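re: ur question from yesterday

yeah so i grabbed the chain u mentioned. its 237 aa long if i counted rite. heres the sequnce exactly as i have it in my notes:
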Amino acid sequence: MTAAALRALHVPGDPLILPNAWDADSARLVAEANFPVVATSSVAVAASLGYPDGEVAPVQEMFAAAARIARAVPVPVTVDAEGGYGLPGPEFADRLLATGAVGCNYEDTDHAGGGLRPVDEQAARLAAIREAAGADLVLNARIDVFLTAADARAVLPEAIERARAYLDAGADCVYPILLRDRDVLAEFVQAVRPAAVNANGPDFAALAELGVARISLGAGLWRDARGWLAEHLKSLR
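ran it thru and got these structure tokens back, copy pasting raw so excuse formatting
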């Protein structure tokens, strides 16, 4: 499946729902449930490989996991690629596309140095990926300012600045992760309109009303499955 097919599913007000998978088997379940796209969750994939989240897992193992998922399903795959694993844009694009994936999340957290990358630096990284990948990759630019913010409205101007810079650099979609405040999210969506915005579930109808184009469940399904298994093991014991 092509990046064009994935890109076309990003419709403001009629969002693409992404139940995030973590291995080939969970990806097959997503596809068999007739979801048109499989997305991955970095924390869940890393955990399945025996590592914590945050670019601790070796990049070759993360990309190998992505390749197994892409081979297992007949639908487009978009990969949570964290902050790019320190790879230059052309190498990142080549290695990601080689897995068979046609999209990715690309976040502005600097896992090597801590904190967020400066907006100009992150925009340049996105532009390099876009130049290398052309139209063959759907870029979902994650904006991490809300992850640690006590007041979502206070960091909204920075989030909008980052979103506009990332879109200008070639991102197809922007993702203000963990922006839970409905009013602030509505302002964000309006500020970047008509660009596609990714939000977090699970209130699909409310998010659709705000005009988001993509809804991620993140690590939710993995946590639910893991929680059920942990309790079931206790009962067996």
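noticed a couple things. Residues 3-236 form a domain with the TIM Barrel fold (CATH 3.20.20.60). also Residues 152-168 form the longest helix (17 residues).
anyway ttyl
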